[in-house]
Amino acid sequence: MIMLDRILLTNDDGIDAPGLAVLEEVAGQLGREIWIVAPEHDRSGVSHAISLHNPIRVSRLGPRRFGITGTPGDCAVMGVCHFMADGPPQLILSGVNRGANLGMETVFSGTVGGAMTGMMLGIPSIALSQAFTDREAVPWDTARTLAPHVIRRLLEIGWSEEACLNVNFPDRPASEVGPITLARQGVGMIQGIDVESRIDPRGFEYHWLNFRRGRREQGPESDLDALREGRIAVTPIRYDRTDEAAYAALADKLPRML
Asked: Which of 154, 159, 182, 215 is at a distance of 20 to 30 A from 192, taking alpha carbons?
């Protein structure tokens, strides 16, 4: 059975999020020494951002447990390059996010961003998310029960140093969940972004941004379809987003236009 020496945990829902508590339980079955570096507050939607223009302040909350004012990417950097500089972690786990991270939403996800920053630093990294239907009744026991086995299997198999893994658990009891399924990143459910404008008590205008979601055609072997079928979706993700078809078309036509 795999037992790692050091594991670093982070998330984007914040240091006090229930999903991080679940992840800490999971990591305790996989590693001897668990380090936690997470945002002090919810930083959902910050993607891979790191703080270049603002100082990062740290709250030491316990042995190997730190809350910071930065992003999930900052957390990965601070963990690997500062707090654990004497010996890097063998694995970074980011999550467990409240809600699935699928398709186009992975571009915005701080959970995925934390894992991708870990990958950039040369550490095997996995983002984990738990789908739900009722926000007040997230089935955390599904991720708590199944994640240790899933992570062990992935570590046994291994994956490219140029990718991190995005793992989504379906909104079902653990006993009803299907097998681990390798899935491609689909389109997801984002149909647009709405701007809701309001006036504050002092008469100044402010705005909320909200994703508008709906059904879309996903393509073959998509992460969303796997999750809808009750399976655990595992998707390798990398930084290179070059569109090969568009590249080929531009390579053919662009030189003739110059």
From this structure: 182
